[in-house]
Design brief:
Ketoacyl_synth_AS, Ketoacyl_synth_N, alpha/beta, globular, Peroxisomal Thiolase, Chain A, domain 1, 18% strand, 3-oxoacyl-[acyl-carrier-protein] synthase II, 14 helices, 433 residues, 12-stranded mixed β-sheet
Length: 433
């Protein structure tokens, strides 16, 4: 990672209590790190989703289960990618988070050795945490009693430990928070980071989501709910957001981490970033444990809140990275909400056609893809969109990635329990340091 001169921070903000800002400051995404089924690393993941090539495949670890395929991260080596021979100390979820954070911080041109750690926060989202560690240990406990348990069990599986390990690795001594809003958790984490920066509580926030829940019990539980696709004979075609023939989502894993700073602070050290995080909206359906409100009441309210926070109208939105899970109900409800609030002027994609559903990591990964769309002028397509649902009057991106430079883009995330989180992004404007 490039070393950041201490004087750059001295010119920014002192380590002491920050004065309340006189106006809402612009917040920039200055670093992105990704570990996804589309590829390990930002560029590999971006190339993968822009190619539109699905990653779902038969999964040997799921053999004999009702659904035997998933979207795995297949080119990840924790020892190599973390440069740590002791990487076994971390759950796979935490390994993903550490790798993505390492890339994001380096991409932002920051060095934890040089930054003022007391002004750096960490917010990380997850839906199930270290469940791939917990279940084998539970079996050992049942078989052998306490003597069979690993002394690392709690440090590996507790849901907060991914954020805790991140703060330790980065020397981030500001707020360290873990969000658990199911499949909205990664977006919730990014939204909380926005609050921390606007309030002056932090100067830098490392925010995102991580998940490693592709295990037989989890996939079987989702299958019992009839939430997963049953296309066992053609797994690559199974995740098909907004398609007429969609029948459920595909389980995935991975992590996405963003480095967020006030844009003026970043400009002082010569950084502009990928995009501005202009707004955040969060609501609850208060309707049903696992089903969205049939009229999308909470989703619509979250979209309106994000737009209000960004000072924008729905007609200004020209791109949406939708939640788009490939389930019959979600895509219908979300599609209707987008059509009503935004009209037909926004292009709509769901990268879950390539990556599958990354649960608590999904919102952060898709926020990163949205920022990259703005920065690079290219919108990824909806994979497997063979027959667009005729009930949805949306500008769905089909075929190759679409050249586009959005001026206002949304990233939607919704989760079990009725959690809704929407992030609004704008291009980086000229910032005076």
């Amino acid at each position: 990672m490039a070393c950041l001169p201490q004087e750059a921070f001295a010119q920014s903000r002192s380590p002491g209590a920050a004065a309340p800002p006189t106006r809402t400051p612009d917040v920039a995404v200055t670093g992105i790190g990704l570990v996804t089924p589309a590829g390990t690393g930002r560029e590999a993941s971006w190339d993968g989703v822009c190619s539109g090539r699905p990653t779902a495949a038969t999964d040997p670890e799921l053999a004999g289960e009702p659904v035997d395929f998933s979207c795995r991260v297949r080119d990840f080596d924790p020892v190599r990618d973390l440069e740590d021979p002791q990487a076994w100390r971390y759950d796979r979820c935490t390994q993903f988070a550490l790798a993505a954070a390492r890339e994001a911080v380096g991409d932002a041109g920051l060095d934890p050795v040089a930054w003022p750690g007391e002004r750096v926060g960490v917010v990380l989202g997850t839906a199930v945490g270290g469940i791939s560690t917990l279940l084998p240990q539970a079996r050992k406990f049942d078989a052998t009693g306490a003597g069979g348990l690993s002394p690392m069990l709690l440090a590996k599986f507790l849901p907060n430990m991914a954020a805790g390990h991140l703060s330790i690795a980065l020397g981030a001594r500001g707020p360290s928070l873990q969000t658990s809003t199911a499949c909205a958790a990664g977006a919730t984490a990014v939204g909380l980071a926005l609050f921390l920066l606007r309030s002056g509580a932090c100067d830098i926030v490392v925010a995102g989501g991580a998940e490693a829940g592709v295990i037989p019990m989890m996939t079987s539980a989702f299958a019992r709910m009839r939430a997963l696709s049953r296309r066992t004979g053609e797994p690559a075609a199974a995740s098909r957001p907004f398609d007429r023939d969609r029948d459920g989502f595909v389980m995935g894993e991975g992590a996405g981490v963003l480095v967020l700073e006030r844009a003026a602070d970043a400009a002082r050290r010569g950084r502009t970033g990928y995009a501005l995080l202009a707004g955040y909206g969060a609501t609850s359906d208060a309707h049903h444990p696992v089903a969205p409100h049939p009229e999308g009441r909470g989703a619509r309210a979250a979209i309106r809140a994000a737009l209000a926070d960004a000072g924008a109208a729905g007609t200004e939105v020209d791109h949406v990275n939708a939640h788009g899970t490939s389930t019959p109900l979600n895509d219908a409800v979300e599609g209707a909400a987008l059509r009503q609030l935004l009209g037909t002027g926004a292009s709509v994609t769901s990268t879950k056609g390539v990556t599958g559903h990354l649960l608590g990591a999904a919102g952060a990964v898709e926020a990163a893809f949205t920022a990259l769309t703005i920065a690079r002028g290219l919108a990824p397509p909806c994979a497997n969109l063979t027959h667009p649902d005729p009930a949805l009057d949306l500008d769905l991106i089909r075929g190759p990635a679409r050249p586009q430079r959005p001026t206002l883009a949304l990233s939607n995330s919704f989760g079990f329990g009725g959690h809704n989180a929407v992030l609004a992004f704008r291009p980086v404007a000229e910032v005076t340091a």
